[in-house]
UniProtKB/TrEMBL annotation:
Extent of the signal sequence: 1-22
Protein name, as recorded: 6-bladed beta-propeller
Organism: Bacteroides pyogenes
Keyword annotations: Signal
Record carries keyword Signal: yes
Pfam families, A to Z: DUF5128
Length: 393
């Protein structure tokens, strides 16, 4: 196990007023302070390899209610908030809401061409003050906020392209990733920024400056860039894995940097991307990248990584120890193998997703616990997914 190491930083923040049609302004970041998390993908925990009991004390399986009118086609994201599960179904462009026990509560599906409708869902989050559903449509170039009844309460324009967004109060935090946005930065292009804040629809701040290059178009577009930790919003960059905390006026403050020891090549936005070298490193197993969202709670950091296969790593904050369960998880409470892909994490739980068809198939070959056998007996192969709720130690 390795320890988190620290480097020092000088942050130079300044206040920025938000004005319509104002020339863009940028807050300077001196990013020399990150807590560095060093992970060796080859160094898989040997004490109890893959056992979920290493960090969990209980595992629950929560089937989501299924009916002809309640069918989830493709789970793109799970948000857990206020004892409710919110699921974005990409196939139907719908947001479903379920109770903690898996009972259906409501859905928001307003896809269409009308003034109160969205053309598509590029990203979604919640208004954490009232539980409203907030949707960004890149085709509609707008944000939409709906009540649980599907009533549109607010629509605002998004005059640039982004891959992900978060919201807090009147603020929207937008991650533009490697999208060119030449119109937004026409005065300085190919220089551009990857992070923009909006307040009441007005651009307030730009950060994460880089020089756009067409090679970046070959880098996969990220998603799941924003997560929440207590009252904090975190932004994760994936090309060069770095995590920032967003302060009360939308400025980024460096928090964590993840370094993989097996990387022979580490691409970033700080220079051009050597696509040939990147592909060669991937082929030789010498490139590992961050995969999916980065999660933090009071006691842990959790994240997935990709090195051909998807792996799981976590950090115990009390002592900075880094653990690498590797490429599979065993629910040794119920004798079931699990996907390592994180669906969500909050203060008490890690959430994974299970498919009823796969669970039913494994039940024929494995000796599940009586509890899990009973759950499986109540499942049909094509039911909605099962939320696997892992209670943390």
């Amino acid at each position: 196990m390795k320890k988190l190491t620290c480097i020092f930083i000088l942050v130079l923040p300044f206040m920025i007023s938000c004005k319509k049609n104002a020339a863009f302004q940028a807050t300077i970041i001196n990013d020399s302070l990150f807590q560095v998390i060093t992970v060796n993908p080859d160094n898989i925990d040997k004490k109890e390899p893959g056992k979920i009991s290493a960090f969990a004390e209980e595992v629950e399986y929560i089937p989501l209610q299924t009916a002809d009118s309640i069918l989830i086609g493709e789970t793109t994201r799970l948000i857990v908030w206020s004892d409710l599960y919110y699921i974005w179904d990409k196939l139907s462009e719908t947001i479903f809401c379920f109770d903690q026990d898996g009972s259906f509560r409501y859905r928001v599906n307003r896809q269409g061409n009308g003034p109160d409708e969205y053309l598509n869902i590029k990203d979604f989050t919640l208004n954490r003050e009232n539980g409203n559903i907030m949707i960004y449509s890149d085709r509609g170039q707008a944000f939409y906020e709906y009540t649980r009844d599907g009533e549109l309460v607010k629509k605002s324009k998004a005059s640039f392209l982004m891959s992900s967004f978060a919201a807090k109060g009147d603020w929207k935090y937008c991650y533009l990733d490697r999208l060119p946005n030449q119109r937004l930065y026409e005065d300085i292009f190919p220089e551009a920024y990857r992070y923009v804040t909006l307040n009441d629809g007005n651009v307030c701040n730009h950060q994460l400056k880089y020089e756009y290059n067409e090679d970046f178009l070959h880098v996969p577009l990220s998603s799941d860039n924003f997560t929440y930790y207590k009252d904090k919003v975190l932004l994760t960059e994936f090309l060069h894995p770095e995590i920032y905390e967003i302060d009360s006026i939308g400025n980024l403050n460096p928090r964590y940097r993840i370094e993989f020891t097996t990387n022979a090549y580490a691409p970033s936005f700080y220079g051009s991307v050597d696509l040939k070298r990147m592909k060669e490193a991937e082929k030789e197993g010498e490139y590992t990248g961050l995969f999916g969202a980065f999660y933090e709670n009071e006691d842990y950091l959790f994240f997935n990584y990709s090195r051909g296969l998807l792996g799981l790593a976590y950090v115990e904050k009390k002592d900075g120890s880094i653990h690498n369960p590797g490429y599979f998880l065993l629910d040794d409470f119920n004798q079931n193998t699990l996907s390592v892909i994180l669906a969500s994490v909050d203060e008490k739980y890690v959430y994974l997703m299970g498919e009823p068809e796969l669970l039913k198939e494994k039940q024929k070959r494995k000796q599940f616990s009586p509890y899990l056998n009973e759950i499986c007996e109540g499942l049909q192969e094509f039911d909605n997914p099962v939320i696997i709720r892992v209670k943390l130690k």
